[in-house]
């Protein structure tokens, strides 16, 4: 995989430092990368306005994207990569294509069309559209590419003594707290040691979320943490646990980043996303699927060791594989052949 001398304009919302890891790896592979946050600001107020009605923010968004055009107009880009696409104006995409007609346009989404209908209008501006959501890939004829893990996690397994049977580290949203607390109760009954870390950007951000998410009204705010953990810190906690709990958004079937990080760490996974059975690395010895409407945990799951994942599957789950898929050759043949949503339409 050689990106030596290639120029890339990369726009993405900030998402827990993954965008920085992508930039760093692209540069290590020889690319020249210009990165911009897709949002003009990451303040709580700005995020709230963008999510509810970004028309109130239109002048600031327009000015911000004009600034990007001004700063990048003299560059000769080989690629334009957009991740998320929540804020970007269509007018910017049109102007960028006019100024850089030879640049390959690539869009990747780790959200669903159901949550962001704007995606349907974005697709036509791009040469290649990728999504982590299998149903969107099938329905809208998109390339299917799941997320990835960072090397911090693959190298995280240590000889340290195991302190927990189940850990959860994640943002506070949807029904995560309700499910997490239920799993904690079940764990106590079955003598399982648990560790839960619910994260929110700030108290103000959490209050804003509560306005739109009824589930959060039941959240005990004393259990909230406002410190964003580094990937090295999360990997260290995973190393001290037998398993990691994954609670997907109820309307998403695409696998979370946590899925790949957990398995790369050599740790077992408990997940509410039963769609994981459609992936090549699925192994019931390593992965327990949970019914979010009828939660239970089989304590025997923790008695056996993690079954090693094949080198091929780990390679396909990596950040390097994700980059190769977007910039060089799609991996539909590999990922789609395992998933039932694509088989049923042959």
Detailed description of the structure:
By secondary structure, this protein is an alpha/beta fold. The chain is built from 15 helices and twelve strands. The strands form two sheets. The protein has a six-stranded parallel β-sheet, sandwiched between helices. The radius of gyration is 21 Å and the shape is globular. The mean pLDDT is 89. This is Lipopolysaccharide biosynthesis protein.
Uncertain residue segments: none
Proportion in helices: 25-40%
- Based on the coordinates given, report the CATH architecture of the largest domain: 3-Layer(aba) Sandwich
- General form: globular
Instruction: Calculate Rg over CA atoms.
Output: 21 Å
What is the CATH T-level topology of the largest domain? Rossmann fold
Taken in chain order, the helices and strands follow as: EHEHHEHEHEHEHEHEHEHEHEEHHHH
Percentage of β-strand residues: 15-25%
Number of domains: 2
Which SSEs are present, and which pair or pack?
Layout: E1 7-12, H1 18-28, E2 32-37, H2 44-53, H3 58-72, E3 79-83, H4 90-99, E4 104-109, H5 119-122, E5 128-131, H6 134-140, E6 143-144, H7 151-154, E7 164-171, H8 176-189, E8 194-199, H9 203-212, E9 224-225, H10 231-239, E10 241-246, H11 257-264, E11 268-271, E12 287-289, H12 311-317, H13 319-327, H14 332-336, H15 340-343
Organism: Kaistella flava (ex Peng et al. 2021)
Protein name: Lipopolysaccharide biosynthesis protein
């Amino acid at each position: 995989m050689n990106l030596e001398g290639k120029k890339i304009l990369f726009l993405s919302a900030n998402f827990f430092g993954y965008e920085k890891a992508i930039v760093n790896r692209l540069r290590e592979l020889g690319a020249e990368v210009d990165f911009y946050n897709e949002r003009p600001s990451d303040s709580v107020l700005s995020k709230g306005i963008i999510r509810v009605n970004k028309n109130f923010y239109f002048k600031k968004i327009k000015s911000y994207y004009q600034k990007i055009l001004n700063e990048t107009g003299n560059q000769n880009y080989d690629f334009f990569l957009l991740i998320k696409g929540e804020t970007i104006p269509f007018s910017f995409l049109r102007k960028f294509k006019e100024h850089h007609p030879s640049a390959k346009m690539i869009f990747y989404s780790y959200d669903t069309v159901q949550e962001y209908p704007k995606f349907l209008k974005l697709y036509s501006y791009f040469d290649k559209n990728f999504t982590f959501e299998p149903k969107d890939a099938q329905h809208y004829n998109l390339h299917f590419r799941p997320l990835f893990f960072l090397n911090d996690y693959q190298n995280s397994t240590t000889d340290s003594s195991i302190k927990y049977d189940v850990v959860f580290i994640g943002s506070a949203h949807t029904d995560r707290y309700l499910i997490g607390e239920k799993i904690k109760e079940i764990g106590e009954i079955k003598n399982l040691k648990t560790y839960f870390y619910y994260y929110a950007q700030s108290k103000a951000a959490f209050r804003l979320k509560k306005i739109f998410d009824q589930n959060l009204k039941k959240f005990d705010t004393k259990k909230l943490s406002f410190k964003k953990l580094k990937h090295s810190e999360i990997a260290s906690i995973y190393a001290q646990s037998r398993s990691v709990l994954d609670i997907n958004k109820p309307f998403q079937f695409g696998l979370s980043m946590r899925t790949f990080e957990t398995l790369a760490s050599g740790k077992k996974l408990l997940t509410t996303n039963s769609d994981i059975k459609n992936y090549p690395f699925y192994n019931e010895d390593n992965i327990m699927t949970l019914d979010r409407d009828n939660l239970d945990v089989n304590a025997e799951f923790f008695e056996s060791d993690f079954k090693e994942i094949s080198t091929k599957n780990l390679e396909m789950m990596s950040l390097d594989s994700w980059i190769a898929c977007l910039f060089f050759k799609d991996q539909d043949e590999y990922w789609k052949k395992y998933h039932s949503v694509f088989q049923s339409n042959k």
